[in-house]
Each structure stands twice: as structure tokens, then as C-alpha cells.
Amino acid sequence: MAAQTFSKGRGAQSSQASTRFNIAAREADGDWQDVHDCVDGPVEKLRTTVTVEHPKAILSFNASPDVPFDRSINAYRGCEHGCIYCFARPTHAFHDLSPGLDFETKLFAKPDAARLLRETLAKPSYRPAPIAMGTNTDPYQPIEADYRITRQVLETCLEVRHPVTITTKSDRVLQDLDLLAELARHNLTSVGISVTSLDARLSRLLEPRAASPAKRLAALGRLVDAGVPCHVSIAPVIPSITDCYIEGILAEAAKFGVSAATWIIVRLPHEVAPLFREWLQTHFPDRAGKVMATIQSIRGGRDNDPRFGMRMKPEGVWADLFRRRFAIAMRRHAMSRPEVKLDCTRFRRPSTDGQLSLL
Question: Measuring CA to CA, which of 57, 78, 135, 137 is 20 to 30 A from 167?
Fold first, then answer.
């Protein structure tokens, strides 16, 4: 039987389909794989594919008490960054695709996003409130360089003076610095960049196709210099893997002039938990048990706490320790929580033909 290997350049180690929606699981047969390798050579490198999707609407609304926004746009389904801990992975199960490698390699793009947004904003019943981008999959993942969907949405928001927030792990956000700076001038945007560690090697294992920590921190500095409200997000904090970088990340961000920060403990909903366990056994078998025991201690004995109001509120001694460490480091660097209040009063309702209302 072939020796066990890991998927180089990818976060997940397998592509087993979810059974949560009564989908039959798929698993490669090891003996067949050995014969295939001997006869035809090694399997071709896993490639990324993009399927164009044409949804009927682009703005999603929620009433969750766990997040500070009630509407969002996801320009893409799936994410090539491949972050092993990504809580959006289970969404691929709805498409009969694996939350593992399929989530990272079989992507969906929504090029009609800006047009659909304009149609929603033009409705007489629409009332403006900040639109969040990057809360599910990253709006600046590599395929944004080709599709530019995020940029088109930002252009629409700037045109109609609608507030929008960005969360990303990519320095590609700087490609839209011109738009973000202009939005910021009207108090219409803020940007959060997630930094999970200061170790480039660890980052390649956790987030194999995301920008390096150094590039993300430098991007925050560029945003600060351009007058764009921004903050560093230590998200997620993974016990015994990344928590040792909490103080260092805040110190480095402060050097770039960043004055606001947040943190989020790792979440492992649905299929993310077994994928994360598999990743731990592949890369950190020596501490896998300790990591999961700590996570369970802050989630009421489970891998994840799905209750509304509790999903983002870890409990227990470990959670308290992380809070204290974060608070002390924040005080040391004169940082605070982001409190940007974007302006919804400038909104100018468009018409569906692309013209702005005169009223």
C-alpha cells in the first residue's frame, strides 16, 4: 500500500464527501491507486476550477446575535486560500462536494454581483446598513485577480454612497486601495485583516494559499497611511498552535500604526472538526490530543458549540486566559476594539438602468 502523504499546497488532506445530507461518501481505494501509479504514473496535480454561478440575488440577510452585521455579500463560493479551520467549508456539502479539497479547488464565482446589488439597492423598500464582505469566503482570494467581482461591488457602493466592510487574509486588498481610500473619505468603509501567526511556515500549513503574515501586516500599514479605518484580527486563535503569537501580532501591528484589534477562538462546525483533526494528525501529531482537549474545554465538552449567542463566546479557564492576554497586550500598545460607525445617511438610491435618483 502506498505511503501516507499530505496534499502539498492545500489545507485539507482529503476530499471525502459529507454524509450530512444523505450523500454517499467517496473514498479512493488504496490498492487501485498503487496500480494506477505503476501503470500511468503519479496522479496529476490537483488543479483549481471555477464555475460561473448566476444567483437571483446577491445580498444575504441574517438575524444572528453572534455577528455585528445583518447583511453580507459573498462574491465567491469556496476559497482557494485553503484555511483548514474555515467555518465556511460545510457550505460545499450543499453542492454534493467535499468540504475538504473540493472547497479549495472547485470554486464558484458570481460575476453578476454588482448588477444584482444595484437591483436590490434600487428597491423603494431597501434601507441602508453596512454590507459585510469576507465573512464567509475571502473576497480577495486569488481568482479575484481575474474576475474583479469585489472591485465591481466596491465601485457600486462608492457610486451610491453605501457603507461596506471588508475582512480578508490577503494583501490583494491593496489593489483596490484607490476605492477604499475614497470610500473612507466619505466614512463608508473599514477593513479587517486576519493574521493568525508570525511564522510563515506555519501559515503555509494553516492557510496554504493566503498571503504571508508579513505581507498582511504590511498591507495594514498601507491602509493606515491611506487613511482607511482598519484593524488586525487574530482569527482564529488555535490553542497550542497559534496562541503563542497573540502578543507578537499586536506588537507588530502597532509598529505599522494599527490602533484597533480583535480576536476569535477557533470554531469547528460540522465537517470542519474531522478535517481539522486529520490536519492535526498529519502536521502536529505530538500535540493533537492537547489541542482538541483544550478546544473542547472552551466549547462545553464538544468540538463546537452551535448555540446562537454562544458560538463566538468561548467559556472556561483557557478562554479567560486568552482574554486576559489579549487585553494586557492591547493596553501595552494603546490599542482598542474597532468602533467605526459608518455613515448610512449619504445613500443615494440608484435606478435599475444605472442612473442615480435625483431625490
Answer: 57
